[in-house]
Structures are given as C-alpha cells and as structure tokens.
Amino acid sequence: MDFGTAVWSSRAWQAAAVEWLDHRLADAGIRRTGPVAHPHIRAWATAVRVPTDRGTYWFKACSPGTAFEVRLYAVLAERVPAHVLRPLAADPDRAWILLPDGGPLLGEQLSGPALARALGAALVQYGRVQLDLMPAAGRMLAAGVADMRPAAMLQQFDRAVAMTAAGVRDDPDRRGRRAAVAAARPAVERWCATVAQSALPASLDHNDLHPRNIFWDGAGSGSGQARFFDWGDAVLAHPFAAALVPLGMVRRFLDEPLDGPGFLAVRNAYLDLFRDLAPAEDLPAMLETACRVAKIARAHTWQRAIGAAAEQGDEAADRFRDAPLDTLVAVLDQDWLTVG
Question: Which of 156, 245, 251, 153 is nearest to 198 (CA)?
Fold first, then answer.
C-alpha cells in the first residue's frame, strides 16, 4: 500500500488515483466534468474532490492505521444504509474508496443551543445505528476495527500508559502527570470491571462524533436527518462510549451544567433507546463510567495519528505530542465528559 503525505502529493500517485476513480465512475455511468481538487492531505488519510455530472464525489485514501475504514463501509452500507454514505467503489487492498458528497455539515449550519439540539437528535439517531450494528460485531472486528470492548480495556489502559513513556524523562511536569495516571490503575480497573458487567452488547463507537463529522439535512433547523462519516477513528466498544464527544459538546453549546434541563433531556433521549436491554435505573451511572473508560481508546487514537505523522516528518507529531497523555489524565478527571 502506497501512502503518506509525500506519496499522496506526487504526480504519479495522483495520476493513478484519478485513473482508478474515472474507471469506477464510468462503470456507474457517471462522467467527471472537471479537474479534481486535492484539499486534504494528512499523515493518516487524504481526500480528493471530484466534480461529476451527478454531483460531487470524494475519493479517499487511508494509511495502514485507518485502512479498516474501507472494509467497515461495506458493513455499514449493508446494515445501516440510510445513516451513512454508500460507497460507489472501493479497493480494500489499496485502502481506496469513492463516496458521494453528503451535503452540508451539521457544524456549518447551526450554532449555540440550536446546534446542541440538533447534535442531540443526531446522537439519538446514532444510538439506533448502534442497536442495528450490535449483531455485526464479529464482522466489524474482521474488517480491522480495533477491539476496545470492556473486557479489553484494562489491558488497553496499561498499553496506553506504557506508550506515553517516551519524552517524559526530561519533563518533570509530564513525568508527574504520567505517574499519577499509572498510580490510578486500581480505580481504572474498577471502572473497567463495572463496564464489563453491563448487559449492553458492544457496538461501534465512532470515537469522534462531532458536528463536522455529521452531514445534516435539516434546512438549518434543530431537527433533521443525520448521516455519519469519517470512520477512521472508530472502535468496537461499549455503546455508551460513543456519547463522550457529542454529549460534551451538547453541554458546551447549551452552556449548562451536567444537571441542566437541556443536557438531561438529550442524555435521557439517548439512554431511552437502551431500556429494553438493561434496567433503566442503571443506565445513567453506566453512561458516566463508559464515557470515562472510552478516553483510553481516544488516547490510542491520538498515539496512532502522532506515530503516522512522526514517520513522515509531519509537524502534527510535535503539535499534538501531549494529546495521548492529556487524554489519559482526563480519565481521572472528576468531570466524566472531559476529553483532555
């Protein structure tokens, strides 16, 4: 698999990509109507905008660390087609995929309380997606989605602590924060055990479910239809792990505390989806613990991205070097929605 910012910026790679996508468009009876644009090149993925006589398409190439996204799309398109983009074509061996444009992003249309309400509605819709995907857990693992199910999370915590060792020797502050995280292992073990006892089956945690990863068909309103995309950070986890990012943003957009009426309305609407699978009175506490444990998976995601950037000399490696440790420190925060 050819990948990386240097490869993706080369004329040879771009010519090969355009040749491939042109053939795939032609197979579907679609014609490209102008030159492609290449606005997004990152260490972990790149995207090419493709104008056609059927609207805009996007060609995406992934690095080895996110290549599973191409195979995951096959599962999503089969199980939850109304909630995701349906690929026009894919080449899993090269980690290439061709997708239709999904329209305006949620984060481009709304702000403040209106954005909070729409994001809450999108979270409820995502909860339905999670329920539909629960029977496909094995297929998602086979596609390469990382295993962050509750039983694996203490081991994942230990791995995350170990991976943050680099760079702390000459930095007393980083060394002290890492020591505090390591010393909290007994508490983390209790939290992981609590989540492992949950009656809820594992499902797909998008792991970065924010308003710019959601297409929104709502005419600029707080109610509408969402479609979810950008699955390169996704993991298989306790379903409530997926609520960490959107609930944190809902609270911020509402400017409410955790017991505020608007926040609780969003939280409860999401939890109500799972009442048939676990006692309703247990769900709020399980949500808090699952979100706390979910930060461990986010630390791994940061480390993977930084590693890809470092391999390619990308300045993002230095800019985000503290993110894995910051995220682990947030596991201990009294505020269960803090993400680091």
Answer: 153
- Both tokens of residue 206? 């998008």
Cβ atoms < 10 Å from Cβ of 51:
16
Spatial distance between the Cα atoms of 188 and 70, rounded to a whole number of angstroms: 33
| Beta carbons of 73 and 53 less than 8 angstroms apart | no
- H/E/C letters for each residue in 117-138? HHHHHHHHHHHHHHHHHHHHHH
pTM tops 0.85: yes
Burial of 129 (0-12, 13-18, 19+ CB in 10 A): buried
Tell me the β-bridge partners of 232.
none
Each residue's pLDDT tens digit, 172-198: 888 999 999 999 999 999 999 999 999
Q: Position 293: which residue type?
A: V
Say if CB 203 and CB 241 are below 8 A apart. no
Residue the block writes with tokens 């090269």: 94
Judged on CB neighbours under 10 Å (0-12, 13-18, 19+), 93 is: exposed
Please, which residues have CB within 8 angstroms of residue 4's CB and are 6 or more apart in sequence? 43, 63, 311, 312
Extract the tokens encoding 236.
């298989």
- State how far the Cα of 340 lies from the Cα of 145, in Å rounded to an integer: 23
Per-residue tokens: 311: 């391999």
281 burial via Cβ count (<10 Å: 0-12, 13-18, 19+): exposed
Q: Which of 212, 62, 209 is nearest to 143 (CA)?
A: 62
| CA atoms of 94 and 61, how far apart (whole Å) | 8
Confidence of residue 40 (pLDDT cuts 50, 70, 90): confident
